[in-house]
Write a structure and sequence with these properties.
Length: about 100
């Protein structure tokens, strides 16, 4: 009875697609997006690239200047850190224990 209630024109079928064509179309869209990014990144004059590099270097120097602690060894030249640890006498070296055998 349910089959009689459904009209044949009400049944919607999915669109049949060719997967090879869909894959190639997607690859073309991705390649075009990559090309657009490359045109933006590499399609600049030498002066524009140098200006961008200078601005990036300036920002890096500003950021480095704001660091509280540096990771390099010459940032903290305290003598305590560079001094070797004093040698501790071993029990064999102690004159109170007598000569070693």
């Amino acid at each position: 009875m349910i089959a009689a209630a459904v009209k044949p024109e009400a049944i919607v079928t999915a669109e049949i697609i060719n997967l090879r064509r869909a894959r190639k179309a997607k690859n073309r869209r991705d390649a075009e997006a990559r090309a657009e990014e490359n045109r933006i990144a590499f399609g600049r004059t030498k002066a524009e690239r140098q200006a961008t590099d200078a601005a990036n270097a300036l920002e890096a120097r500003k950021l480095d200047g704001l660091l509280l602690e540096r990771n390099s060894s010459n940032a903290d030249d305290s003598p305590e850190r560079d001094a070797p640890a004093p040698e501790q006498p071993t029990p064999d070296d102690d004159p109170a224990n007598g000569p070693s055998q």
